[in-house]
Write a structure and sequence with these properties.
The chain is mainly beta and 121 residues long. The chain contains no helices and eleven strands. Strands 8-4-3-2-11 form a five-stranded antiparallel sheet, with no helix packed on it. A three-stranded antiparallel sheet has the order 1-10-9, with no helix packed on it.
Length: 121
Amino acid sequence: MDKAIALCQSTALQERGAAVGFDVLYQGQACRAFAVRYQGQVYAYLNRCSHVAMEMDFQPDRFFDDTGEWLVCATHGAVYAPDSGECRGGPCRGGLVTIALEESDGAVHWHTGTNLKPIEF
């Protein structure tokens, strides 16, 4: 069953700036995920390169290249479109795993699904 989980205030996601990281349970494994703002919209993905399942950020919560146009895997140089997670260059297989977000009333929420759950502590 789909459930909305509070992630952050809308102001925490600055255009093409630092991501907001969060933890999810994906297909039974604990994974890191991240949310970014690009062209005024919010997007979230698993922090897992499609080339090799490694975290992508080159510094904590930093995913955009120097131009602010692409999400880049710091280890392999794979390049992804921020608005779709689609592979746009480098050694990637497919795209990033998308996490559904919604933004309303100054807050961002992510949605659980069949393969995506909150981590219970």
